[in-house]
Amino acid sequence: MKQLISLGVQDYLEIAIRRRWFIIVPFLLITIGGVFWSYRIPPAYRASTLILIQKQRVPENYIKPTVTSGIEERLHTISQQIMSRTRLEAIINELNLYPELRKALFMEEVVETMRKDISLEVKGKEAFQLFYQGRHPQLVAAVANR
User: Fold this and answer.
1) Which residues contact 4 (CB under 8 A, 6 or more apart)?
2) In the prediction, which pLDDT does 51 show?
3) pLDDT value at position 59?
4) Which of 29, 46, 54, 126 falls between 20 and 30 A from 73, CA-CA?
5) Which is nearest to 112 in space by CA: 85, 75, 82, 141?
6) DSSP secondary structure, 78-116, as one string
């Protein structure tokens, strides 16, 4: 039966020194690959805007409310309006977004590409935040503001 030998810190250091190339070479390859990859990928920018939905502030005794739906339903309706094809197509044409894709694809496919670049996040019960990401910072900010 073999006896187990306990190794100390000094033993582990000696093992690491003997096997230094098994440590150094992968470390250098991973580092060089990471640096090369970070310079090759295009930059991505993200802009956001916060949209608040306020309740009617005039007392119902004075004016009968014209909006009878709840806040959650109104948030859903507004988010559907924002992501509608007509609104997104107007923004694409107005700001000249995706010029290469518009030459090669149908407008519906370009709109779908834009929908993938947009994300909505509900913030509480009275607001949601819209995010848009792209490669040109001024254009990304203009889309989010629009």
Assistant:
1) none
2) 83
3) 60
4) 46
5) 85
6) HHHHHT-HHHHHHHHHHHT--HHHHHHS-HHHHHHHHHH
Q: Which of 123, 124, 141, 136 is nearest to 48 (CA)?
A: 141
C-alpha to C-alpha distances, 10 to 7, 13, 19, 23, 112, nearest whole angstrom: 8, 5, 14, 17, 60
Encode pLDDT of 64-122 as tens digits. Answer: 555 555 666 777 787 788 888 899 999 999 998 998 988 898 989 999 999 999 988 88
List the 127-134 sheet strands across, edge first: 45-52, 127-134, 118-123
pTM value? 0.65
User: pLDDT band at residue 46, thresholds of 50, 70 and 90?
Assistant: very high
Q: What is the pLDDT of residues 13-29, one digit of tens each?
A: 999 899 999 999 999 99
Token digits for 49? Answer: 């805007």
Q: What single string gives the DSSP state of each residue in the chain?
A: -PPP----HHHHHHHHHHTHHHHHHHHHHHHHHHHHHHHHSPP-EEEEEEEE-PPP-S-TTTS--S--S-HHHHHHHHHHHHT-HHHHHHHHHHHT--HHHHHHS-HHHHHHHHHHHEEEEEETTTEEEEEEEES-HHHHHHHHH-
